[in-house]
Amino acid sequence: MHPDLEKLMVLQRHDVELKRLSDEMAALPKMIAEYEAKAKAAEAQKAGVVEAIAKEEMVRRRQESDIKDQQSKIAKVRKQLDMATTTAQVAAFEHEIAFAQAEIGKLEDAELESMERSEMLAAKNMAADEAAVLAEKVLERERAQAAEMIARAKSTLELVQHERTIVRAEIGEDALTLYDRIAKAKGTAVSEGVDQKCSACQMLLRPQRWNDLRDRDNHETMMTCESCGRLLYYDPARDAPQKKAVRSESIAASIVRSL
Ligand SMILES: [Zn+2]
């Protein structure tokens, strides 16, 4: 293997790790924003219930004042009834009183319905309260965890960056330029050849190239995948007997085979 290639493999591990860490750090604020939105929604729901309770109380106050109005109307008409001189007047006042009493009955029924609604709203209020408290607790917990994760990721990031600088200094300029160019275009620049294929793009290598890649005495040239252009390497450990014994078939396939 070309001496630079081994270092490029290390460099790629660092670069992949750096990307993973920065992705992880970038994902955290989004996750926290989701928990913030949930807590906000729970607060809004609670506020909605509180508003509904206030409205219901207002409805009931109006019903009570309407009942009082009807009662004073009845009292007034009764006085007029006492002073009535004709049967027609008596009938008219009695009709008015009966009408007001019916109105009071309707208002009282409506008041009962309103009280039932208030009871339901009180239960809803309790549930909304609990949900809001819980959402706030979850948010605080996630915030604390995210802060911890970011602190941890930052220190790992610094470490990896430091190691990356060291390994880059050890690599030849040409190899480094090539690596940077491929990595910029493809995301990764180095790919393992496995089973005569480029493990990054899955393209089959021609037999001669495959043999060249596996040639242990080849320390001169760096081979690239003809399809994706990545630098290829071959891990000789794959030729070791214990590695060969490793099953490459899927679990499902092995179950089927053992039936
Ligand atoms: Zn490839």
From TrEMBL:
- Any idea where the C4-type zinc ribbon domain is? 197-232
Q: Which domain of life is it from?
A: Bacteria
Q: Which residues form the CT398-like coiled coil hairpin domain?
A: 11-187
The residue stretches assigned to a coiled coil in this entry are: 18-110
Q: Which UniProt keywords apply?
A: Coiled coil
Q: Report whether Coiled coil shows up as a keyword of the record.
A: yes
Report the protein name in the record: C4-type zinc ribbon domain-containing protein
Record organism: Edaphobacter acidisoli
